[in-house]
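Q: How do we represent a protein-ligand complex in a form that can be generated token by token?
A: Start from the inputs.
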Amino acid sequence: MANTSGESAFYVSTPIYYVNDAPHLGHAYTTVAGDVLTRWHRQRGERVWYLTGTDEHGQKIMRTAEAHGVSPQEWCDKLVEESWKPLWRHLEIANDDFIRTTEKRHTERVQEFVQDLYDKGEIYKGGYEGPYCVGCEEFKTPGELLDGEDGAKLCPIHKRPVEWLQEDNYFFKLSEYGQRLLDFYDEHPDFIQPASARNEVLQFVRQGLQDLSISRSTFDWGIPIPWDDKHVIYVWVDALLNYATAVGYGADQAKFDGTWPANVHLVGKDILRFHAVIWPAMLMANGLPLPGRIFANGWLMVGGEKMSKSNLTGISPQQLTEHFGVDAYRYYFLRAIPFGQDGSFSWEDFSARYTSELANDFGNLASRVAAMVGKYFDGALPEAATTEQAIADALADTVARADKAIGDDLDFAGGLAAVFDFVKLVNGYLSEQEPWKVAKDTSPEGQAKLATILYTAAESLRAVAVLLNPVMPATSEKLWASLGAEEHLGALSDQRIAEASSWGRLPAGARIVKGDNLFPRLES
Ligand code: MSP
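Then emit the structure tokens for the protein with 5'-O-[(L-methionyl)-sulphamoyl]adenosine bound:
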């Protein structure tokens, strides 16, 4: 599983987001998850590549720009620089690249890719007639539409009327890939996750695939079809190719070979078919290797519906980080909602978890331990008289569980539950051992016992800082500093997950200082 330099990077991507509006909690959900996954793999010592970006062509963006009286390019530039990039910086997203589909490094390669398909006979000209949802930028089938008022047909996701298209288009022979895709899914049972997503795709492909219209001719905000500039490339074909163009496809072969194929494409469940059906077929058609895994996350819901700006239910992440802080925000959604399932956000649930898990269980443990080492040992970590084997064993088990859950299975909730169970165990150990009472026993045995208790708790926190660093980097840094760990063990980001469980790494004599509370009391 491990990737070391020289081998291909562990490559994770988010969807590239439409810039018709500012980001909301749903977009941040996928991006934070990807960030935690990549930071986890970095702490395994692997070379990692994390990509995000923006999807800037198509009718949806064009109409939004028109409605605001600016050109689409001006609109995109403004949104990217003023809303999207600043949010990712605010949320401490450590992406290695940010691709915009209006960049030349993308548009030129997309044209070459499509030209190649044309030259190979994979594309032909035809006529398209049928419903289209501009919100999804997707050709719909009549059977999936909902009935609205006055006979209108509605998109099942946006609940808004679809448009009827009748255009001359170019088509990709997607229908010829059904069996090859099914064979591939069969040979790679982990390709589509979770299982519910895999089943949905299998069922869809088994029904038989239609050829895919890959161009539009009634507007011009897109990449021109190279052999016929009256057409622009369908925005989804353009967008999917970002995963290849961003890592050097057709431009920097060494970079491409060292990064592609992606290990994990994170996507929302609404865009699963594009990634699990159309994208692999496009790659097969051009003879490129397929990604390792498509993982579909569920939706953040509001009032039983997908949170979205177009439903006016989009909440901006800053509204929550102002109150709870960035690290608690990064933690909360991954801890509260099993990754892959839908979940509702509630202010009350967030407050409850903040107070009980972050402030009480974790924050108090850190400040109690630092305060006691300060009070009883002048801030110098004492040497343990014995190893508390039960705690050391529990730590080893925690590291193994969290590593598998987060690093391999993308089960963030399960991994965090393992770490917080361990925090609880250490809290329980302190309550049982009552070091504040033991401290009154000034005999050598009493002092040795006190030293063991406080060493055990501080050493446990050393491991917790490493395990939580991918999720809550700023808090973990504070904890690392308060344990005086850097001087002896080096930078927190250089700590390896595999070593987190070796007991006794924090040496006696480390300078423990009580810093600010890791999680201050919430203002009501
Ligand atoms: N531009 C396309 C993706 C192209 S990828 C080659 C797109 N963009 S989007 O901005 O509409 O949404 C992209 C993603 O945002 C979703 O797939 C999902 O990952 C995330 N989410 C948007 N709303 C969401 C929720 N309410 N809940 C969870 N994730 C959501 O589709």
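The chain has a mean pLDDT of 96. The longest strand covers residues 123-133.
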